[in-house]
């Protein structure tokens, strides 16, 4: 973690850590109000995540008038982050630098992590005096409006293995969880567009997601979550050939695996991918939700 992080009252940058989040299955739940919209479903947070640092920008740092946002050293356009800064009233004064263990756009909730991390760190750096629920709601709304995510932010704020019983930000959505911690492996082959998937007919997603959620509520365990996720991916028609082959190889080797929503990424419990011969990254489910770092 950054040695510079700390309260913004003394002029130093503020840093937040947000865990990555893998969605196993979901049912999109649109609504006119982005705070109420979102998804039902389940997944788990990861000790691999995103560290977001907010600092006061130099006077000439953003000559084009846009907030400076970087990911792993490269300046990028990240609409949810820009919306968060604008809503906090610090868009012209803040610079956001994110460092991630996880690739963008491959099903790990990186955009949601950046939005939530920016909300937490900017609130601290600029003494905005917003509550935790306010900040999570702000980041969730920004994600929904941008079309980059439906449930990552609320899950990342909670940590652990969250079950989203109802959609929406805090004070609207209901959350439960699977009380467990576990080693997780993952391998990614590329990205998928969340916006494109949600722009199509979502009836199969809703049907398959509701079935998966009912199964998990009946038996709230991590193996049930992964098995329900695997069936969801097939029933919703989201599996790519390479993901399907990888998941099948893990299952044939005696492991539990499925596809991350939404990315061309496979996750497995314990050493499932390694046992099936894949060169996988490994971490654990994350007990803590998003938080400022010392």
Provide tags for this entry:
single chain; 294 residues; alpha+beta; Ribosomal Protein S5, domain 2; eight-stranded mixed β-sheet; 9 helices; 34% helix; disordered N terminus
Give structural notes.
- This protein is of the alpha+beta class and 294 residues long.
- It has a single domain (1-294), classed as Ribosomal Protein S5, domain 2 (2-Layer Sandwich).
- Helices cover 34% and strands 27% of the residues.
- It is built from 9 helices and 12 strands.
- The strands form 2 sheets. Strands 1, 2, 3, 4, 5, 6, 7 and 12 form an 8-stranded mixed sheet that branches. A 4-stranded antiparallel sheet has the order 9-10-8-11.
- A hairpin with an 8-residue loop joins strand 1 and strand 2.
- The longest helix has 16 residues, at 110-125.
General shape: globular
Strand content: 25-35%
First-residue to last-residue Cα separation = 8 Å
Order of helices and strands: EEEEHEHHHEEEHHHHEEHEE
Estimate the mean pLDDT confidence.
93
Number of strands: 12
**Helix-strand makeup class:** alpha+beta
> What value does the Rg take, in angstroms?
18 Å
Present the secondary structure layout.
Elements: E1 14-29, E2 38-56, E3 68-71, E4 74-75, H1 79-88, E5 94-100, H2 110-125, H3 132-146, H4 152-158, E6 162-164, E7 175-177, E8 183-191, H5 194-199, H6 203-218, H7 222-235, H8 241-252, E9 257-259, E10 263-269, H9 272-275, E11 281-284, E12 291-292
Parallel strand pairs: 3-5
Antiparallel strand pairs: 1-2, 1-12, 2-5, 2-6, 3-4, 6-7, 8-10, 8-11, 9-10
């Amino acid at each position: 973690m950054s040695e510079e992080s700390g309260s913004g009252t003394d002029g130093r940058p503020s840093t937040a850590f947000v865990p990555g989040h893998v969605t196993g299955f979901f049912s999109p739940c649109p609504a006119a109000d982005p705070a109420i919209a979102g998804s039902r479903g389940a997944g788990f947070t990861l000790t691999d995540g995103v560290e977001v640092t907010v600092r006061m920008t130099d006077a000439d740092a953003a000559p084009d008038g846009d907030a400076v946002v970087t990911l792993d050293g490269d300046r990028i356009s990240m609409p949810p982050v820009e919306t968060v800064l604008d809503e906090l009233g610090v868009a012209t004064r803040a610079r956001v630098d994110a460092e991630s263990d996880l690739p963008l756009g491959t099903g790990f909730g990186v955009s949601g992590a950046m939005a939530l991390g920016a909300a937490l760190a900017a609130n601290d750096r600029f003494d905005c005096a917003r509550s935790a629920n306010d900040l999570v709601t702000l980041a969730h709304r920004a994600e929904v409006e941008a079309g980059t995510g439906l449930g990552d932010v609320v899950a990342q704020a909670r940590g652990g293995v969250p079950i989203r019983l109802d959609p929406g930000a805090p004070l609207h959505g209901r959350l439960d969880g699977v009380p467990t911690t576990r080693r997780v492996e993952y391998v990614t082959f590329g990205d998928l567009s969340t916006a494109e998937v949600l722009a199509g007919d979502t009836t199969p997603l809703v049907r398959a997601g509701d079935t998966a959620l009912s199964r998990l509520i009946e038996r709230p365990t991590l193996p049930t979550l992964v098995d329900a996720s695997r069936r969801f991916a097939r029933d919703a028609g989201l599996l790519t050939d390479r993901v399907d082959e990888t998941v099948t190889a893990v299952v044939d080797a005696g492991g539990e695996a499925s596809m991350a929503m939404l990315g061309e990424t496979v996750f497995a419990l314990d050493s499932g991918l390694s046992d099936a011969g894949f060169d996988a990254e490994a971490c654990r489910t994350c007990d803590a939700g998003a938080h400022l770092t010392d």
